[in-house]
Amino acid sequence: MLLENKHIVLAVSGGIAAFKAASIASMLCKRGAVVKCIMTHNATAFITPLTLREITGNPVAVSMFDDVTEFNIEHIALARWADAFVIAPATADVIGKIAAGIADDLVTTTVMATKAPVLIAPAMNSNMFLNPIVQDNIKKLRDYGYQFVEPASGHLACGVIGIGRLPEPEEIVDYIELTACRTDRLKGKKVIVTGGGTRESIDPVRFIGNHSSGRMGFAIAKAAVLAGADVTLVAGTTDHLKTPVGVMRRIDVGSTNEMKDAVDSYYDACDLVIKAAAVADYRVAHPAKNKIKKSEETMDLKMEKNPDILYGLGQRKDHQTLVGFAAETTNVIEYGTAKLKKKNLDMLVANDVAAKGAGFQGTTNIATLLFPDGTVEKLDKMSKDELAAIIVERAAQIIDKKK
Ligand code: PMT
Prior knowledge:
Elements: E1 7-12, H1 20-30, E2 34-39, H2 49-56, H3 74-81, E3 84-90, H4 92-100, H5 106-113, E4 118-122, H6 126-130, H7 132-143, E5 147-148, E6 152-155, E7 161-165, H8 169-181, E8 190-195, E9 200-203, E10 206-208, H9 215-226, E11 230-235, E12 249-252, H10 256-267, E13 272-275, E14 282-284, E15 303-305, H11 309-315, E16 321-328, H12 332-342, E17 347-352, E18 364-365, E19 367-370, E20 376-378, E21 382-383, H13 384-402
Parallel strand pairs: 1-2, 1-3, 3-4, 4-5, 8-11, 8-13, 11-12, 13-16, 16-17
Antiparallel strand pairs: 6-7, 9-10, 14-15, 17-19, 18-21, 19-20
Residues 212-217, 256, 275-279, 281, 306, 308-310, 324-327, 339, 351, 353, 359-361, 365 line the site of ligand PMT.
């Protein structure tokens, strides 16, 4: 778990969304983080320190002068202890104070004293959030390097529908994970990741597709974001997967040709492509305009070859690093090595999609990494997240060597 033993300070300020801090703290603890909460006085009107203390197992401080011995010289000690500092929810008041350099309570003093990355999750009435003063304060803090979670839109406690809701706790916790764990390994690098399967239409209601869930590709996109890269995720059909937080842009595509157009349009400016998508090699030559009626006992479909996207990228490779996958059911290393060479790749991830715990759908995979110099790295069965982190690290090493 990425957040295992990470020190998170969760600061809660006084808005109706303060009750969600309990779920955020609980999810952080479940993901292995050590959580210490601090609150503004106003926050205690919405949720009690006792609730947060029971969830986190740590004392909760509200005042600069509380008798909480574990937080000796509270604000300085906590500020140093934090791997990430989160304010959720953050009111207009707290944001305004920090932007103005006012440190007059435990939350504002501690945030001012910390060198840890700070994540602020604003939650307030729409008009307040859109007020130019609040927007200026947010911009100022962003420019100083504070990170923000955009509030969600929907029904607000004040009765209106608009922007200003605190996003769901799971999303906030995903952002906290990114804030606490992001490295500079691929900072400044543009990465394209493909995931999911492509679909080829037979008629307006039917298609030819494959079993790809998108999990492998999405795990790679997340790992690349955690390595600090600017990630473009080209997604075919998936099991309705959410875009990993921090992905710069997601482009949803249907067919192989649509995937090719999306990848090609970002290729020249990118540094690394990782193609985990399961791509249809053939398409129906003449898809029917109307639904095909079931009149005959058999049906023939004439198929024509799709472009091989990765092969095309390999042909015009310049400074880019190219990582492909090979989904095989027999002779995995042999076929994988042939694809590595034919497509002019820097690394190939070969997986036996017929093996138990590998390939399509599940949360685990078993892969062998193949390199042009003949190096073969056999990996054990592991989660797709773990495998993704290894793939991204190996790709970063290849980029390092090219410097
Ligand atoms: O999505 P999941 O459910 O998590 O499953 C993961 C996975 C099994 C899909 C993944 O691990 C995987 O193996 N992806 C590659 C699937 C595939 O299309 O393999 P291939 O051996 O047919 O293609 C080789 C490489 O060329 C792949 O990188 C593929 O993206 C690319 N390709 C293939 C055909 C084509 N027309 N254009 C391509 O770019």
